[in-house]
Design a protein that fits this description.
Elements: H1 2-16, E1 29-32, H2 36-47, E2 52-55, H3 63-67, H4 76-88, E3 92-94, H5 103-108, E4 113-116, E5 135-137, H6 138-147, E6 158-161, E7 164-167, E8 194-196
Parallel strand pairs: 1-2, 1-4, 2-3
Antiparallel strand pairs: 5-8, 6-7, 6-8
Helix pairs in contact: 2-4
Pfam families: NAD_binding_8 (PF13450)
InterPro entries: FAD/NAD-bd_sf, Glutamate_Synthase
Enzyme class: oxidoreductase
Length: 197
């Protein structure tokens, strides 16, 4: 329904939207992180008349939605659409920033306010012993999968979530489960602590 509402209302919104009076005349704001939180903050701050710059360590914006959640869940073109929407409202994006960028440094550069929206880039603990190279933390695994890295997966792949092992990863091509065998699909919303290959 949201997609239909967007398609029907997007042109009308573009025609009716205008920059607020005094846009860009308020105190400049730096936002560390250009994931969902940083993009949303940048959009609303720009609408309120602040000049906004988002600082992102990655080579692209979107955070977890762009770099972790597989594209079969949220297509890249939808993420790009949202990023373009924010940029059209006057938000500046700076990519490839120092991951240890400090609030003090940004204030010295003239930003009156600094918002930290660095997101969820940490895995929770993995209750599996040993140092098996085939056990990967979920966010690392999903990032590598989303980039298209060659993960060298075996016949079965699974993930551990809340004390349960589940199997399956949606293949890049058509799904071909073995006859008589049902496979759970990996969901970024239920991705757990470890992925096993």
């Amino acid at each position: 329904m949201k997609k239909i509402a967007l398609e029907k209302g997007w042109e009308e919104y573009q025609q009716r939207w205008h920059k607020p009076a005094g846009s860009g005349t308020r105190h400049p704001v730096a936002v560390i992180g250009a994931g969902p939180a940083g993009l949303a903050a940048g959009y609303f701050l720009a609408r309120a008349g602040h000049p906004v710059t988002l600082f992102e360590r990655e080579a692209n914006a979107g955070g977890v939605v762009r770099n972790i959640i597989p594209q079969f869940r949220i297509p890249a073109e939808l993420v790009e659409h949202d990023i373009d929407f924010v940029i059209r409202h006057g938000v500046n994006l700076v990519y490839g920033c120092d991951p240890h960028l400090s609030v003090e440094k940004l204030q010295q550069e003239g930003f009156h306010y600094v918002l930290v929206g660095t997101g969820t880039d940490k895995n929770s603990g993995v209750p599996l012993g040993g140092d098996n190279p085939n056990v990967r933390k979920s966010l690392q695994f999903l990032r590598e999968y989303n980039r298209g890295d060659n993960l060298m997966l075996g016949e079965a792949c699974g993930y551990y979530w809340r004390g349960k092992y589940r199997n399956g990863l949606r293949p890049r091509g058509p799904a071909r489960p073995r006859s008589g065998e049902g496979h759970d699909r990996l969901s970024p919303f239920t991705a757990g602590d470890a992925c096993l290959a």
